[in-house]
Design brief:
Chain lengths: 425, 425
């Protein structure tokens, strides 16, 4: 008995904070390690962020892009603890949670991701929506439906939908909004003439999709404009008011609904964790992904920042970083030294709308148009966690793109307007 | 031009308030009438209420049981106006909405349904959940997941889930909760021993499913008990506190989460409509479903009450009443008199859980067990609006019942607990 008890105590405890791409990859990599792995997340579900813009525009159910963390954990022989991290007690080797609980670790992986940042632009936090969390996306969807109903009730009103930021999220959201106007609104809102709804994409730089090859960037702008999106490049937002954007050049842009897709940074709470932070509040790591100054604490995914080798904040690096951190923990537990993280570029993809996407693969392979779009659909559906989610998402995406007019089958929620009889969303 | 304009003015305007079973049936019945039909609802979606308990227990997406009213309206040549009715101005023939708008009618059908009533039981409104609206069901689901996480974190805590009311909603909810405990919790919450979670069904009467034949009622109680539900009959709730029920016999029952499925009544706001009300605040109608004292105003569905011929508050009577009211409007517009509403009983069904349901058909046909259950599944999936919803629901139900352990694929949402980093559900 004593021997068994001793042995059980010697199993290293690995705590993984954050059930996103990096955290889940770490748990998966450790499933046969024999270590006691615990996933910690403030939500009971993991969100497939790349498709949140579809939830925001009524094409997918929130449940299609969310998967219970417990399901993933039990499948991979890990435990789950719901909780928000307020501090990392490196001396006691414990993660301190908001509910007062403490989770002890021998090795820790911090993979809690980042959140929307407004770069201090006045009014942006109050008057814009993000599409970075499941709750964000539901809020955009419900506000969008609410604005459309209001416009339908007032024949003289216009609706200006604005997306700030020309990265993949901004481009995909603007493209989906344009599709909504072109087919969905036409079908479901006969009261609203097409020219009463405008979609505008505002980007500070001289191009959208800056991570892609210039030819793909030009293709994306052409496709957006072809689909009715007004694209303003080199335009910086100076302030946001309730119904308009004030630009740095002194002009104003009407905006009844603004999606802020301009940037991400670590959550403010990370400041209290007591760990070194770099650009955007992200946690500073060395080449092996260990947090600077720490032996047993790793950071992975969007939250990790190595100034010598900054990574794009996308799913593929996050997955590779999570798996790398897990592998280094196995090495440390075996008494070996850590290895340097090396990113293997698997390519990058973004979609503009039906039959239009860009894909960039290593070796100068660049795809656009319907083939790239089909590749994008397949890639995202296969990457989705869980067979049920895959099937359900495929069904809903197929419905969105194969049925005409698709607006008839929008997934709609509660209107956030103040009606006298009202229940929770 | 003048002639056309005159003709257009002569098209009777029919306003249908409420996009539930009765309202949608009315709109469908009027689609070839040539009349100008407008559906009015406070939500932009129609909810398939019979499956809300599945949303509440994580088996279906909220979007699986909701369908955009505009989609239905445009398919049936009707218009849609979002709004909550605050008054019916019968003199001006206008429905007054909460946003100040007025919708003019020549004929009006009030089919806004009913809502949960707590019969004045102290604490019931504050401390219990309903499963009568989409928002209700989401709230139950999120609270349930939250309670389970809390119990998982505290090895010495128990969880008492209580359902008040033994009608179809109560029986179906209790059965689904028992299934969740038996398979879902076992799979996803290895920390929680089975005997730490209890499901209790409390019913005031001497039997559950009082609308069914006594042999079916006994079958339902047997099946519930077989599935681990404690059934307390002849038990009246006197008051509800945060964590327990106080019964009329002086005993108390621990209850961390209580679903109130004990009764429905017209919403309080209906009092302001200025129309005659009967039992449960429902609007009094004559045998032709016209509101008492009104020539052009009908009521249909749960909201309508004819003391001479009270109807069960179920989908089949609501659908038939909606269609009947529509037919009478066509007769009135053609200068004919109205006909009396006669309910054609098509039978009744309720499910207890996997492979267990009761079906009662006219002609003394009574079914129980797996065949009844398959009939119930088929009936509900076919009745669901929209091919996309049907497919998606079938997929999710199949997953729930064909995969073991199904808990791994629960549809989960946000925890309503107060965590420091929190976003909207």
């Amino acid at each position: 008995m004593l021997l068994i008890s001793n042995r059980r105590c010697q199993v290293p405890r690995v705590v993984v904070v954050g059930a996103g791409f990096a955290g889940l990859a770490a748990a998966r990599a450790l499933r046969r390690s024999g270590m006691a792995v615990t996933l910690v997340d403030r939500h009971v579900y993991s969100t497939f962020q790349p498709l949140l813009y579809q939830v925001a525009t009524g094409g997918l159910n929130p449940g299609d892009v969310a998967y219970p963390v417990r399901a993933y954990a039990t499948q991979h022989r890990a435990g789950f603890r719901r909780g928000a991290v307020v501090r990392v007690d490196t001396a006691a080797r414990q993660v301190v949670l908001a509910d007062g609980g403490r989770v002890s670790y021998d090795y820790l992986i911090l993979a809690g991701g980042v959140t929307t940042t407004h770069f201090g632009v006045p009014g942006a936090a109050q008057h814009t929506f993000a599409v970075y969390t499941r709750g964000d996306a539901i809020a955009v969807r419900d506000a969008l439906m609410d604005r459309l109903e209001t416009v339908a009730e007032s024949p003289d009103r216009r609706l200006d939908l604005v997306v700030v930021g020309g990265g993949p999220t901004g481009v995909e959201t603007a493209g989906a909004l344009a599709e909504l106007c072109d087919t969905g609104i036409r079908a479901a809102f006969p009261e609203i003439a097409r020219d009463r709804v405008r979609v505008l994409l505002v980007e500070r730089g001289e191009d959208v999709l800056s991570g892609f090859h210039p030819s793909l960037r030009r293709y994306a702008v052409r496709q957006l404009r072809h689909r009715g999106v007004q694209v303003r490049l080199g335009a910086t937002v100076a302030a946001v008011e309730a119904d308009r954007l004030c630009m740095a050049d002194g002009t104003t842009v009407p905006a009844e609904l603004t999606v802020w897709a301009a940037g991400v940074a670590a959550a403010d709470q990370v400041r209290d964790w007591g760990l070194p932070q770099g650009a955007g509040g992200r946690i500073l790591v060395g080449p092996d992904l260990r947090v600077l100054g720490e032996d047993r604490v790793f950071a992975a995914g969007d939250l990790a920042f190595d100034p010598q080798a900054p990574m794009p904040q996308l799913a593929p690096p996050a997955i590779q970083m999570g798996a790398h951190a897990a592998g280094q923990i196995e090495r440390l537990a075996a008494g070996l030294g850590t290895k340097q993280f090396r990113y293997r570029d698997k390519g990058n993809a973004a979609t503009i709308g039906r039959s239009a996407a860009v894909i960039e693969l290593p070796g100068l392979v660049r795809l656009t148009g319907p083939i790239a779009w089909l590749g994008w659909v397949g890639l995202h559906v296969v990457m989705l966690l869980g067979a049920r989610n895959r099937l359900s998402t495929l069904l809903n995406l197929a419905w969105r793109y194969l049925s005409r007019p698709y607006g008839r089958n929008l997934i709609v929620g509660d209107s956030p307007s103040r009606l006298p009889i009202q229940e929770a969303a």
